[in-house]
Amino acid sequence: MSAGQIRIDALCEKKLRNKSKKNQKLEIFLILKWFLVAVLVRRIVLPIIFLFDRLVVLTTSLENSNSAAIVIIRTDNLGDLILWLPAAKALADSKMLSGERVILVANSNWATLPILREIFAEVIPIDLKKFRQNIFYRSRNIRKLARLRSKMVINPIVSRESVTSDSLARAIKSQIKIAAAPKNEPLPRTLGAVNRWYTRLIWVDGTHHELLNNQYFAENLTGTLLEAPWPHLESAQQAVRSISGKYAVISPGGGSLDLKAWGSEKFARIADWLVDEYGFDIVVAGTYSERNVVDKFKNNFHHPVLDRCGTMSLTELIELIGDASLVVTNDTGMVHIAAALRVPTVVIVGGGDFGKFLPYPAAAADSGIKLDVVYHKLDCYQCAWRCIYDPDVNGKPPCIRDIAIDDVKQVIFQFLEKS
User: Fold this and answer.
1) Are 386 and 397 in contact (CB under 8 A)?
2) CB 79 within 8 A of CB 333
3) DSSP per residue, 181-247
4) Which run of H or E residues covers position 370?
């Protein structure tokens, strides 16, 4: 090796060391930044929000308040709602709530779901983004709830959020307020204080599946056994589509968490295989916010596709899924819709909250649910998506990135052979 080459190698090594030091400094800076933000939010921002809410309630006139009712707060995501529906029906039909007017305070993303009108006398939609960010929208809805005269407020959400569901429950005047609370999990200081807003806490095991936690909460509250905790939906079987053959619904988006998305190119390869080997037509679905992911899927897919991304109401999505022969998706709310409709469903699952939502308990198959998961098991599972590994260039953790296309094909093949 020449002297010149040695000097070049030494210079490159020095640059790499300097870059590594810069990266370390940047990482330390980011850690300190988010630590300071967390302290600021917990010590200053949240108390100001809670004080604001309290002032709104105290200045709200109760002259035109509504008649007494039971109010249930459920403002989390669509998948959470689908998993909760059996418990919701059990609550509404229980002797404890028999003859009572039951109102649901709901996430506006799914508040129009027709089945809710069959269970509840009234559904009050809340746009969570506006509720968090728009002070006028927040105060208007706090006043609306403050005018409710409630016999009882129930917040069955296990992973409660203090600035949304807890604040909504706090705004309602009631002598009895009951909430779910996770045991076996570290209790944030803020949540410990917020727990005092309730008169009773029903402690559920945060490590159990959400279906079982919903069942336990409903049984503990009503004293009545819930025999069938498995979700079930009916479809009108009238999906508006321009295809006449059997079709598979592909959903490459990651829902509320992009890092759960397996990859549009991989979904495209699965879709190509379904067309070539089984003659499926392909429908791609997702929310409007997943448009870029769906476009990337279409660019890598080599056959005609019906694009229904961001174009359907929730009712139309249920109809589309209900008439499908197969659903292949990431861990999103679409999984639970398909499972509730008893449509064969294959899900790519990471390890962040493995076991809490997916896979379903084995007993679910006895109810006709056709759901299987594909995953890459690591020792760090159940990390709450606080990954200890560096993500790849696409921002994917290894538990998602390393799921093989052939493994997904194998699970689909087994499903189709059974059919």
Assistant:
1) no
2) yes
3) EEESS---HHHHHHGGGSSEEEEEETTS-HHHHHHHHHHHHHS---S--S------S----S--S-E
4) none
What are the start-end ranges of the E strands in 279-360?
A: 281-284, 306-307, 326-330, 345-348
Q: Three-state SS for 147? A: coil
**CB-CB contact of 272 with 295 (8 Å):** no
| Domain covering 247-418, topology | Rossmann fold (3.40.50)
pLDDT band at 33 (very low <50, low <70, confident <90, very high): low
Which residues are 123's β-sheet partners? 104
pTM: 0.85
Return residue ranges of the chain for CATH 3.40.50.2000: 69-222, 247-418
> Residue 39 class from Cβ within 10 Å (0-12 exposed, 13-18 middle, 19+ buried)?
exposed
Q: Does pLDDT of 42 surpass 80?
A: no
Of 257, 253, 286, 261, the C-alpha closest to 400 is 261
Query: Across residues 67-76, what is the average pLDDT?
Result: 91
Q: What angle do CA 27, 33, 38 make, to 5 degrees?
A: 125
The answer to whether 157 and 72 are in contact (CB under 8 A) is no
Q: Find the Cα–Cα–Cα–Cα dihedral 367, 368, 374, 376, rounded to 10°.
A: 20
Q: Classify domain 69-222 at the CATH topology level.
A: Rossmann fold (3.40.50)
- Mean pLDDT of all residues in 377-393: 84
Phi, psi of 24 (to 5 degrees): -65, -45
